Structures are given as structure tokens and as C-alpha cells.
Amino acid sequence: MVTRDTPWPPGTPCWVDLAADDVGSAIAFYGALFGWDIQSAGPQAGGYHIAYQYGRAVAGLGSTAEGQPSTWTTYLATDDADATAAAITAAGGRLLAGPADLLGQGRMALATDTAGAVFGLWEAGSMEVGQMEASSIKSSQIKGIGLANEPGSLCWNEHTSDDLPGSLAFYRAVFGYESEEMTANYTLLKTAGQQSHVGGIGSAVGPAGWSTYFAVADTATALALAQGLGATIVRPQWDSDWGPMVTVADDQGAVFSLCTAPADS
């Protein structure tokens, strides 16, 4: 289990959120699948909700823009959203929104990289928001995900595109990633000075994008539950160095992956 109460190092995938056409249905789906306790972020948050696992924030859920598909978005940590936004455009990316203050909690932005993949930036702020602890609300600061590698929490993020060299060059330029080639078509990423890998970049045919992986106690069992809730299989279960994985689309079409939680989590 990985827990954190302070901002994540720059370049680390630090948050994921779902933009759904029907937020109520999404709350029901993911609450049943992962056992999340999903709470409104407040009347000023425009219907945005925070999902908690064991009292720690693990994801957000909100509404899609009109006409947009339901999708999961990966946010990368930064200690200066404005400077990172400038680096994105200098490296050939494009800003879609922000950087802008978000209810005093921090600064965020949305961007596309040189391959067209959408991702977010999150600069943690200091506004206190509600965090669930046992059956009561505890005042706390959300700096990003507070739990990882535990069933029902984020365990991996990866970027795929048909231009692996170009994508690597972009993210190295913006975030200063150190990289380790795993295969000819897949490279692991580390933030500067950190020992653990924070994500991966791989080659794939089709639209570029960032993928979200959630840990589960058992991939096959979680898949059966997801299908019972209306999910469909996008990529059948496969074995990896980290455990069995499967990629699915939820009942509104948002794609994510399930992975058996690491033994040393």
C-alpha cells in the first residue's frame, strides 16, 4: 500500500478523474465495482464528486462537456502549473484549458501532447476539503490521490501513441523524465531523483492517449463484477510482470484497466 498526504513529485501521475455523461450512473457503477465512498465536492464544484477508499481520496467524477464521450483523464503533478504549461507549448503541445485556480484547492490545466493525447496538470494548493474518515467528515487537504496500489485505487498510468520517439521527447522535455527501455516498444518513466517508475510510454496503433489502471484483489473476479454492472471487454485478460490485467469500457463507454494488486502493495 502506498499512502501520501503531501504533493506528489513533479511528473508523477497524481490524480485521475472521470467525465461521464450520467454522473449518477457512474457513481453507482464505480461504487459497486470498487466499494468507493463517493461524496460531493460541494455546491461550488459544479456536480464534481470525490471517491474515497479507506478514507483517502482516489479519484474524481464529474460531467462531460456537451457532445463529448465519457472518459478517464490522467493528471500529472507540477509545482508550477504556469511554468509547465509554457513548457508544454514550447515542446509542441497545446493547452486546452487553464492554467486556472480551482476553487482555491490548486491550479489545473488540460493539454494535448504532440501525439494528440489529452492529459491534465495539477499543482496542489492548500484549501481544506472534506475527507472521509470512518463515518465522519475530516477536514483535510487533498494533494492528489492519497492511496495507491491498494484494491480500488490507482496502480498505473501509461501513454500510448504511434510515435514513441516523439512522445518520449515531448515528456522528457516537459517533465524531465528519466527513462528505462523495457522492450523496443515500451519505455518505463521515472521522475528526476526518484527510484520507482511512475508510468510508461508505449507504441500502439490508433488514437494516442493516457490509460488508467486500477488495482483489484483479483482481476478475473473484478472483471465478472464489472460485466455484471454493464461493462464490456476492450482487451481480454493478459498476464504481465505486474499481474493479470484486463481492459474494459464501463456502462457509458469510458475505458480503464484492472490489475491484480501488487503483492508488496
* Contiguous runs where pLDDT drops below 50 for at least 5 residues: 127-140
Q: Order of strands across the biggest sheet?
A: 3-4-5-2-6-9-8-7
Mean pLDDT: 90
Kindly name the structural category. Answer: alpha+beta
Rg value: 17 Å
Give the overall form.
globular
Order of helices and strands: EEHEEEEHEEEEEEEHEEEEHEEE
How many helical stretches? 4
Roughly what fraction of the amino acids lie in strands?
Answer: 35-45%
Number of strands: 20
Helix % is 10-25%
Please describe the biggest sheet, giving its number of strands, its sense, and whether it closes into a barrel: 8 strands, mixed
Distance between the termini: 4 Å
Task: Describe this structure as you would to a colleague.
The chain has 265 residues and is of the alpha+beta class. It is 17% helix and 45% strand. The protein has four helices and 20 strands. It has an eight-stranded mixed β-sheet with strand order 3-4-5-2-6-9-8-7. Strands 14-15-16-13-17-20-19-18 form an eight-stranded mixed β-sheet. Strand 7 (94-101) and strand 8 (106-112) form a beta hairpin. It starts with a strand and ends in a 5-residue tail after the last strand.
